[in-house]
Amino acid sequence: MEAVSGSSVCVTSSLAPRSPTLPKSTVSLLRASHQHLTAFPSQSHLFSYHSPPYAKTLRARTASKPAIFLPHLIASLEQVDQTYIMVKPDGVQRGLVGEIISRFEKKGFKLTGLKLFQCSKELAEEHYKDLKQKSFFPKLIDYITSGPVVCMAWEGVGVVASARKLIGATDPLQAEPGTIRGDLAVQTGRNVVHGSDSPDNGKREIALWFKEGELCEWTPVQAPWIRE
């Protein structure tokens, strides 16, 4: 390697050892090579201060668009859904309402509707209309109308799928420990709680069980600590 200071040249490479007997012609050749390299007039953008044409075009296309941090982009695509959760008559009679509400609150979902309600036969039949052809349908209607239920509307990102996991399998004997049914119920016919099985059904059931003006729109102060 060579270091240049002013007009002098210092040869430090093993290729050009410092020696008083080094031929003058060799020194001159090294000096000329160095000057040629430092004055290399490359037209390549790799050696140019100016950006290549395609970089300028790219900047022009993106200059007016703000940069989006990837996690924020993903968060903006997450869908806020609604689900209908109902504490069935056996859950109310056993005093499990507070326990069930607590599990959804601790998860971070937002409660937008809550009421104690005596279900009519007509409403129960409309709610469970998809099961109308099942042999157990009459017994199911009698069960739901046998006492008051607690109607709840919950809102949040992925609330439908998450609520189903919190509730557990329909048969409490197959529900995982830690789920509501796994911890609090022992029989399918007395499985304590209902939850919507899809976002569309969540909207339909909320509209079925709640009248206009019974839902509250509000922003929990803890929201920034639950979602980005």
TrEMBL record:
List the transmembrane segments.
none
Q: Which cofactor does it need?
A: Mg(2+)
- Where ATP binds, per the record, is at K88, F136, R164, T170, R181, N191
Locate the coiled-coil region(s) and give their ranges: none
Reactions catalysed according to its record: a 2'-deoxyribonucleoside 5'-diphosphate + ATP = a 2'-deoxyribonucleoside 5'-triphosphate + ADP; a ribonucleoside 5'-diphosphate + ATP = a ribonucleoside 5'-triphosphate + ADP
Q: Ranges for the Nucleoside diphosphate kinase-like domain? A: 80-217
BP terms from Gene Ontology:
CTP biosynthetic process; GTP biosynthetic process; response to hydrogen peroxide; UTP biosynthetic process
Gene3D superfamilies attached to this UniProt entry: Nucleoside diphosphate kinase-like domain (3.30.70.141)
Identify the catalytic residues. Answer: H194 (pros-phosphohistidine intermediate)
What's in the keyword line of the UniProt record? ATP-binding, Kinase, Nucleotide-binding, Transferase
Recorded hits in Pfam families, A to Z, give: NDK
Enzyme Commission no: 2.7.4.6
Q: Which GO terms describe its molecular function?
A: ATP binding; nucleoside diphosphate kinase activity
The family assignment reads: Belongs to the NDK family.
* HAMAP family listed in its UniProt record: NDP_kinase
Protein name per UniProt: Nucleoside diphosphate kinase
